[in-house]
Structures are given as C-alpha cells and as structure tokens.
Design a protein that fits this description.
Layout lengths: L1 H14 L17 H28 L7 E4 L2 E5 L3 H9 L7
Antiparallel strand pairs: 1-2
C-alpha cells in the first residue's frame, strides 16, 4: 500500500495531480541528510563518552615520582639509586625493632 502511495506521490509531483496524497509520504522511509548527520553525531558522542568512562581510571591515579618507594599506600622514602630503593623495600617491615 505504501509503495502505491509512493508511486502516486511521485506521479503527482510530475503531473501536478490535485488529488495526490501528501508528497511527504514518499520521503517517509528515506532518511534525510539532516537525520543521517544527527545519527552520526549521536553515535560519535556516545562513543567518545564511553571511551572517556573506560579510560578515566587510568588518568585519575596519583602521580608518583620515579625515585619514591611506596609499600602499600605508605611512602617509605626516595632515592635516585635503584639499589638504595631496593634496600628500602626490603627493610620496610622492620621499623618496629
């Protein structure tokens, strides 16, 4: 039925038939450029929002200096020498003695 209306609307546009159905019916199933653009923008915004939510935890972690030694969340010390940092980690459990 709709196909018949589409044909009749197309013919009406060609011959200016006063009894033809509304020409908007012919365009009912065909998305306009504006509708495609809106769909593409909604898809892009959704994708960017999802990517931001996934990547957010990676950017919210606290920045630590490369020379600092942490055990858990506790700062034990800092030194540029890797051997000293290793020794600080080894001795981290012996503060109470």
């Amino acid at each position: 039925m709709c196909e018949l209306l589409h044909r009749r609307a197309t013919l009406a546009l060609t011959y200016s038939d006063p009894q033809a159905p509304d020409p908007a019916c012919a365009l009912m199933h065909k998305p306009s450029d504006d509708a495609r653009w809106r769909w593409n923008m909604k898809t892009l915004i959704t994708a960017l929002t999802l990517a931001t939510l996934i990547a957010a935890p990676a950017f919210t972690s606290t920045a630590r200096a490369a020379n600092e030694v942490f055990v858990g969340d506790k700062l034990i010390g800092a030194d540029p020498d890797a051997n000293v940092r290793l020794q600080l980690r080894r001795d981290s459990g012996s503060e109470g003695y």
